[in-house]
Design goal:
688 residues; alpha+beta; Phosphatase 2c, domain 1
């Protein structure tokens, strides 16, 4: 290069920014890769892939950046556009990068899983072949002596041997007695040909699965060798749930091989001899629209035998299969062989690239955001000063964009601005929010009671504050089945109401798992209330603080069988009053439903039990919260569960709605407090 040309290049290079220089370097590297490929030379797979990725990804972004610079001033003048760009770099770009990283990682995992399935299936065939060889060896007559491969010529004529081989050919097509490959391998591996071998053996461009056993018995040396050709018949049986399978047979390169025929993969170099593929195997249809195809590649080692050469070498076989992600999702991932190390290294490098891009996007987003937030902060500080009475303050305008124009407008309006009453607006907002919360909570309770033959229902809930922490629900599970729930959230007010809403949502969603009525309620095949309570306990434990919990009673009644199944999770035991009295009166016919476990939401691994009761016609079920038993009179005595039970017996002939009203009135009359201390809930069901 002449001196004037060199000076011109230096001047142009100094004028370029760091971004321009980096883009130029990437373009030059890509051009060198393209020239190398045009000349018939291939770079290492990983290096070539990274250079091409940098070129398409970075150069594309660089071109977009240069094009956007033409419109940047006009585009970023608007505050809205600045926020959009800032959020794009802070949120959208990282999400896209993370999604791309996740997709790339999933592709690698699926490829390795498909490769493992192929690798494992072929290895299992080799293991099975070894077992067949051991079986043939064990089935030989004790007097038979096979000291050489020629001695095994008529081995298949022995009935016991023929039976073993016939049974094994279903999974090993082409299975036959071998008199050439096994002896050669054993002779090369062990002195005198004594021992055993199981694996792949290659002779020229043909490959076999070989298993050989050679031992010295009581009557002399005994030798057995079996082989199965690695052909289309065997490949059709490998991993049948996957798609087509293909094997590439290779050999180590020699000095006479042309460089274009030699392929490099990591530390391995090989020359491809031929390919073996399945016949008539196709992929099943896609299970869903994201069910993409996956190609898995794995590597096998084979003993390479050559003509008139007793020395043994190792050759490499590459097996590949095509599958779908939906099929591979049902299998576990294991990386067979050392092919996966290439993909893991690539994944690590791509992860570093994505991390650098993420940092660059974050820095760009922060810079854009700071220009916005600084201007907004100046306006906020000025409004605080004006609100305190300082109308002489002026906003300092540092830019001539939309934010600067806004600052000028603010300075023009400070002479006529008036003080706003923020406290009144906030109070009104809080009142509106509480009113909305009470209205929303009222929608959580059943607005219409289910209609089940022979069952009458009623429920009342009286909140101690504007919103309640008590909860009751009725859900019709079938023509003759109804689910009933009563819960009491710890605490009162907004926090308890929020947890009550979470419990109601979880309870309703869990009921979607209830089977059909035809399956019955026998506790094993049908509804199991303990399972539902266990899932609710798990939900509250994961979605509430450590000091929040709830007591819960859940029951399912089937009017066709008159069976009541329930689980009591730390709730006050509901009362079940029989329809007719026995000789002992109330003590004989009133049951407390206590079977279950502790409160929900406190511990993760609680175990709950289900109780079952045969219900007599006309029985009365009364469930209530602790607000019904805790009211105290002037002497400090609580109303208590015994007085509540007495009121139930006293008014047992009343309708459920009337009985619920009488129980509430009795508890309130006992307390006579000006302010209700706790939420009060009572549920009454007459089971016909």
């Amino acid at each position: 290069m002449s001196s004037p040309s060199l000076d011109r290049f230096r001047r142009v290079w100094r004028r370029l920014s760091s971004l321009d220089r980096f883009a130029l370097i990437v373009a030059v590297l890509f051009g060198l890769v393209w020239l190398a490929r045009a000349a018939g030379r291939e770079l290492p797979l990983l290096l070539g892939t990274l250079i091409r990725f940098f070129f398409y990804f970075f150069i594309g972004g660089y071109v977009l950046y240069r094009l956007s610079s033409l419109f940047r001033i006009r585009l970023l003048w608007s505050l809205r556009n600045r926020l959009v760009v800032a959020y794009l770099f802070i949120a959208v770009v990282p999400i896209l990068l993370m999604s791309a990283m996740a997709g790339f990682s999933a592709g690698l995992v699926y490829q390795q899983l498909a490769a493992y399935l192929l690798y494992n299936d072929l290895q299992s065939r080799i293991t099975r072949l070894q077992a067949v060889a051991d079986g043939v060896y064990a089935s030989l007559p004790s007097q038979l002596e096979i000291a050489s491969p020629e001695g095994s010529r008529d081995l298949e004529a022995i009935p016991s041997v023929a039976a073993v081989l016939s049974a094994a050919r279903g999974g090993l097509p082409g299975l036959s007695v071998d008199r050439r490959l096994g002896p050669a391998v054993l002779k090369g591996l062990h002195d005198g040909g004594q021992g055993r071998f199981a694996g792949l053996v290659q002779f020229d461009d043909q490959v076999w699965l070989v298993a050989a056993v050679s031992r010295r018995g009581e009557s002399g040396p005994r030798f057995v060798s079996l082989s199965v050709p690695l052909a289309a018949d065997l490949l059709d049986r490998l991993v049948p749930e996957l798609g087509p399978v293909q094997f590439r047979v290779t050999r180590p390169p020699s000095d006479s091989d042309a460089p274009a025929k030699v392929t490099s993969l990591g530390n391995s170099r090989f020359v491809t001899l031929r390919e073996i593929a399945t016949r008539g195997r196709f992929l099943p249809p896609q299970a869903y629209w994201l069910d993409f195809q996956v190609k898995g590649v794995t590597k096998f080692e084979a003993v390479l035998l050559r003509k008139d050469d007793p020395a043994q070498e190792r050759s490499t076989l590459f097996g590949s299969t095509i599958s779908l992600a939906s099929i591979l999702n049902r299998r576990l991932f294991t990386a067979p062989g050392d092919v996966g190390s290439v993909f893991v290294t690539g994944l690590f490098l791509v992860g570093i690239i994505f991390l650098l891009l993420e940092v660059a996007a974050l820095v760009t987003g922060v810079k854009l955001t700071r220009t916005i937030t600084q201007a907004v902060d100046n306006l906020y500080s000025a409004t605080q000063l004006v609100q305190s009475g300082d109308f002489s303050h002026r906003v300092r305008v540092q830019s001539r964009d939309q934010l600067g124009v806004l600052g000028d407008s603010f300075n023009a309006m400070t002479s006529s601005i008036s003080t706003l009453i923020e406290e009144q607006r906030q109070r009104q907002r809080l009142e509106n929010e509480l009113s909305i919360a009470r209205e929303v909570q009222s929608q959580l309770f059943p607005r219409q009671l289910p209609a089940v033959p022979g069952v009458e229902l009623a429920a009342l809930c009286r909140a101690a504050r504007m919103v309640s922490g008590d909860y009751y629900d009725f859900v019709q599970l079938g023509p003759h089945r109804i689910g009933m729930a009563v819960a009491d959230i710890s605490g009162k007010g907004i926090s308890a109401a929020l947890l009550m809403a979470s419990l109601q949502a979880a309870f309703r969603s869990q009921l979607l798992l209830v089977p059909s009525e035809a399956e019955g309620l026998d506790g094993s095949q049908g509804v199991n209330t303990a399972d539902l309570v266990t899932r609710l306990n798990r939900h509250l434990f994961l979605n509430s603080s450590d000091d929040r919990y709830a007591t819960l009673f859940y029951a399912v009644y089937d009017s066709s069988t008159r069976m009541l199944h329930y689980t009591n999770a730390g709730h006050l035991p509901p009362l079940l009053l029989a329809g007719e009295w026995g000789p002992k009166g109330v003590e004989e016919k009133m049951q407390k439903l206590e079977e279950g476990g502790m409160v929900v939401g406190l511990f993760d691994d609680c175990v709950y039990e289900q109780g079952s009761v045969a219900v007599e016609p006309g029985s009365l079920l009364v469930a209530y919260s602790d607000g019904m038993t805790e009211p105290e009179n002037v002497y400090g005595e609580q109303f208590g569960a015994r007085r509540l039970a007495a009121e139930v017996v006293r008014h047992r002939q009343a309708s459920p709605q009337r009985l619920a009203e009488l129980l509430l009135a009795a508890a309130e009359e006992w307390g006579q407090a000006p302010e209700q201390a706790d939420d009060m809930t009572v549920v009454v069901a007459r089971l016909g």
